[in-house]
Specification:
The protein has one domain: Nucleoside Triphosphate Pyrophosphohydrolase (Alpha-Beta Complex). The chain is 21% helix and 40% strand. It contains three helices and 13 strands; from the N terminus they run βββββββαββββββαα. A four-stranded mixed sheet has the order 1-2-3-10, with no helix packed on it. A four-stranded mixed sheet has the order 7-4-11-9, with helices on both faces. Strands 6-5-13 form a three-stranded antiparallel sheet, with no helix packed on it. The termini are far apart. One of its GO terms (cellular component) is cytosol. Pfam families: NUDIX.
Length: 174
Amino acid sequence: MYDNRWVKLGLADVQAPNGERWEYHVVHLARIAIALIVNERDEVLMLWRYRFPTDQWGYELLGGLVEDGEEPAVTAAREAAEESGWRPVGEPEHLISFEPLPGQVTAPTEVYLWRRAEHVGEPTDTEEVGRVEWVPLARVPELAARQQLLGAGALVPLLYYVASRGQDQGGQSG
C-alpha cells in the first residue's frame, strides 16, 4: 500500500482459528538500535526534545535506524555520537530486544548498554535537535510517572535496566 525507507503500510488477509477472515492493516517500521549509556555517577545520557506527532516535550535515549549491512550495536554507538557528541567507550552489552506495539506495528528494537562515554564534540545530527543531559537514574520512576520519557524506546530500556539492577543488587520483586 505504501513503502519507503522509514515506514511500510501493508494489508494482510488474516484467518482466525475459527475460520473467520478479514483484512488487517500492519505498519512495518525499520529496525531500530538504541544506546543506553550510564556513567559512574549513575546518570543516563538522554536528549530532551520535542516530538511533533504527540505534541510533547520529553526525554529520549539516543539511537536510530539500523543501516543496511550495519550491526545494531554499531548503529547505536554511531547515533549516540551524532545526536549527543558523546561516543560510547568499550564493548556494549546487549540489554534487551522488544517490539513496542505488536498488535499493529512491527518495529524490531535492540538496546545496548555502555557504562562509559567520552565527549567528542558537539552533536552533528542536525535533525535530532535537543538538549543533551546526564539524568540521574533515580529520576526514572518520576519521569515515567510524569510522562516525560517519550515512547517505548525510552520507557522499556530504562525501566528494564532499573528493575534488573535491583535484582542484581539483591532486591526483591513482587
